[in-house]
Structure to design on (743 residues):
């Protein structure tokens, strides 16, 4: 942000607004694509076709859905807490959108070059929990409260393994700045942290099993962070109707929806930046560059998003106590082992 | 006043009443929730009034009657015995053939008529096809209850093929009116036997695929094993029947124990729950019983098709059916259990009284007894494993 110092107030404001609008544009475009992808993947997993009528293979359907949601009547139940009810979706969206500031989309584009980037992302995306609790409480619906309480318990629990897994990445790369982290792995696929990073061969061989496990745990924990199957308890359709957004409709509902999809890419982006080389090309110098960097970053992120979708349409759902068991008695102890082992190998 | 039930130890937190300073006992954490009648997993318009402390269920009170259509009164006001059959279809709309079977069996026993062999064989084939279709709905929606959406569509895809067979035979896909008193409405079309055999060969590997996808899935087993255990004595005391009863390890199947049609001429064994993944009589056992019964049904269909004799599909019966005054109770093994029709005749052309003993209704009555102390997520699974059809519960 040093470049802004000579610009004067209004120009700075203008540049800031334009720059911060870029992730928003990305989120909206991405949400349209992913909603389409989700429906199509689900359909093909289930041996059917999904939308085929709106445009070629139904590509315009997400836009049609969006227009429909814009037109829908905005319903707020009489017994709801109006202020909180209206505020909640914005807070949820804000938490997700804010975190995009520190995502390194390419070597020349990152919203805010913060040295504590990873820390910032973890911290600000916790704001989502507040919004969800507000939504559940303000709806004044018993199912919503159940969904909200489940969601808070789940997201707070799963933040621990997520943060611990990121910590492993920090230990290896030595930085919390996601741009630095990415540059650290710039040498191509063999230098990615999931394969031990650019270390001497012996260390690399020793460290790789632990980094792979850590990456898998990060992926599992991130599924829970974004409430996806098999951890979709907060909105467990067959139990809690729609969970915390049962009472929402129209654009407010759509905001939750977009925030959920944006969150899916967010957790994938963190995993990509720390473990899969960020915007770095898998072939080292070949096919790298700012624009291709953006391509690689989005591609890697979308692969993880695709995996999330795939799992959602395959697996059943865990029960609340099993969910907590998985977080505290499986993921966290394994991560502690990984951290200790990786620490020892790095010191050697 | 609801008694606090002792809770299983598998849940760490034990909610309990709070003593106030004035010595009163307050149940601070209790909440009453209405699950249904519009809820995704009550399988129709069932309303469960549940008392919960946190996520743990203290009591469940099923409220029924949202789909009451006065079936029994209607049956008394028809102009003849035949006209009751379409109403029987609408009891258990997932297994209409089996409903018809019970009713026509009752009337035929009153009339004391002999049916042609061919009729009995076709009836067995149809009843077993319908059993597979019904079990497919049961296990498919059970997957949704557990959070897995995809098995449901796999199940419905295969059910579609069975419905095609029915459509080919009698034109209807859901409510058939195919079994008539003294026979069938039509003979099966010429290509039916081949198509049905093709279906059997196609469907066997699909059962295995379904098992791989859902039944033996680690998460699914964790969710269903040791949940909603229905012990043998409770199952008997509540007069459960069908997969509910067999899931609890009781070897009782009306097709074998109170033989009707030609089941006694075919080789097959009833399937019972063995507690492979947990306790005998848990939700998983009920599920696996349904899965295995589908395989048994396939084998029955294949045997019946192989032995299908030629002949007439309608016995010689009087044009106006007037059974002698008297009463009869006839029961068959439907996908949900023992469906019995108690028919009283006063010697006129319309039944004096038709009482249906609906297995879904009887099985539902055991729900509160087996779901106290479990979680909301478990209640959804238990209700799914009972496999109720509200059309039959409310009649």
């Amino acid at each position: 942000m040093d470049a802004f110092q000579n610009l004067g107030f209004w120009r700075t404001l203008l540049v800031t607004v334009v720059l911060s609008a870029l992730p928003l544009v990305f989120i909206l475009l991405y949400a349209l694509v992913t909603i389409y992808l989700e429906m199509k993947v689900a359909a093909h997993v289930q041996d059917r076709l999904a939308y085929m009528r709106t445009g070629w293979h139904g590509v315009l359907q997400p836009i049609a859905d969006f227009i429909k949601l814009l037109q829908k009547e905005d319903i707020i139940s009489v017994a709801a807490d109006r202020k909180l009810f209206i505020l909640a979706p914005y807070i949820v969206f804000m938490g997700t959108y804010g975190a995009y500031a520190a995502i390194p989309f390419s070597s020349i584009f990152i919203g805010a070059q913060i040295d504590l980037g990873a820390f910032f992302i973890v911290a600000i995306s916790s704001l989502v929990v507040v919004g969800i609790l507000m939504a559940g409480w303000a709806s004044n619906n018993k199912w919503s409260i159940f969904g909200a309480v489940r969601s808070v318990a789940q997201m707070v629990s799963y933040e621990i393994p997520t943060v611990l897994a990121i910590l492993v990445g920090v230990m290896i790369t030595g930085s919390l700045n996601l741009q630095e982290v990415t540059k650290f792995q710039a040498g191509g696929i063999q230098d990615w942290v999931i394969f031990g990073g650019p270390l001497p061969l012996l260390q690399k061989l020793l460290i790789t099993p632990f980094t792979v496990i850590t990456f898998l745990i990060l992926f599992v924990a991130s599924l829970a962070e974004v409430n996806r199957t098999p951890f979709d308890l907060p909105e467990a359709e067959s139990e809690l109707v729609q969970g915390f957004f049962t009472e929402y409709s129209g654009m407010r509902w759509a905001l939750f929806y977009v925030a959920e999809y944006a969150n899916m890419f967010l957790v994938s982006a963190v995993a990509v930046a720390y473990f899969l080389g960020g915007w770095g090309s898998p072939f080292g110098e070949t096919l790298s560059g700012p624009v291709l960097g953006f391509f690689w970053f989005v591609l890697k992120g979308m692969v993880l998003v695709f995996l999330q979708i795939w799992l959602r349409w395959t697996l059943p759902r865990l029960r609340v106590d099993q969910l907590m068991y998985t977080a505290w008695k499986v993921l966290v102890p394994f991560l502690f082992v990984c951290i200790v082992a990786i620490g020892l190998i790095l010191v050697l | 006043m609801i008694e606090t039930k002792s809770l299983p130890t598998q849940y760490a937190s034990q909610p309990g009443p709070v003593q106030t300073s004035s010595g009163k006992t307050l149940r601070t954490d209790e909440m009453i929730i209405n699950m249904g009648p519009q809820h995704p997993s009550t399988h129709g318009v069932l309303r469960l009034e549940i008392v919960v402390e946190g996520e743990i269920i203290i009591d469940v009170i099923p409220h029924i009657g949202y789909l009451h259509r006065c079936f029994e009164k209607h049956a008394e006001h028809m102009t003849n015995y035949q006209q009751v059959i379409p109403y029987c279809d609408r009891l258990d709309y997932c297994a209409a053939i089996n409903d018809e079977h019970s009713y026509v069996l009752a009337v035929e026993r009153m009339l004391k008529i002999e049916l042609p062999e061919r009729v009995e064989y076709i009836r067995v084939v149809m009843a077993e096809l319908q059993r597979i279709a019904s079990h497919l709905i049961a296990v498919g929606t059970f997957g949704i209850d557990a959070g897995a959406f995809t098995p449901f569509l796999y199940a419905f895809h295969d059910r579609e093929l069975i419905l095609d067979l029915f459509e080919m035979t009698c034109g209807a896909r859901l409510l058939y009116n195919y079994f008539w008193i003294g026979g069938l409405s039509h003979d099966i079309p010429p290509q039916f036997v081949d198509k049905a055999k093709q279906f059997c060969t196609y469907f066997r590997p699909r059962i295995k695929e379904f098992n791989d996808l859902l039944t033996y899935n680690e998460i699914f087993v964790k969710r269903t094993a040791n949940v909603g255990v229905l012990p043998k004595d409770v199952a008997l005391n509540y007069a459960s029947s069908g997969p509910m009863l067999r899931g609890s390890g009781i070897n009782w199947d009306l097709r074998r124990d109170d033989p009707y049609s030609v089941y006694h001429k075919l080789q097959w064994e009833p399937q019972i729950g063995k507690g492979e993944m947990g306790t005998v009589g848990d939700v998983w056992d009920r599920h696996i019983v349904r899965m295995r019964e589908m395989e048994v049904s396939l084998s029955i269909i294949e045997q019946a098709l192989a032995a299908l004799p030629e002949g007439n599909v309608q016995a010689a019966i009087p044009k106006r059916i007037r059974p002698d005054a008297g009463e009869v109770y006839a029961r068959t093994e439907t996908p949900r259990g023992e469906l019995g029709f108690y028919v009283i005749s006063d010697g006129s052309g319309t039944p004096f009284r038709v009482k249906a003993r609906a297995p879904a209704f009887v099985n539902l009555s055991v729900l509160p007894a087996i779901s106290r102390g479990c979680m909301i997520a478990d209640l959804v699974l238990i209700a799914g494993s009972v496999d109720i059809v509200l059309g039959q519960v409310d009649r």
User: Anything to note?
Assistant: Chain A has a mean pLDDT of 84. Chain A has one domain: 78-347.
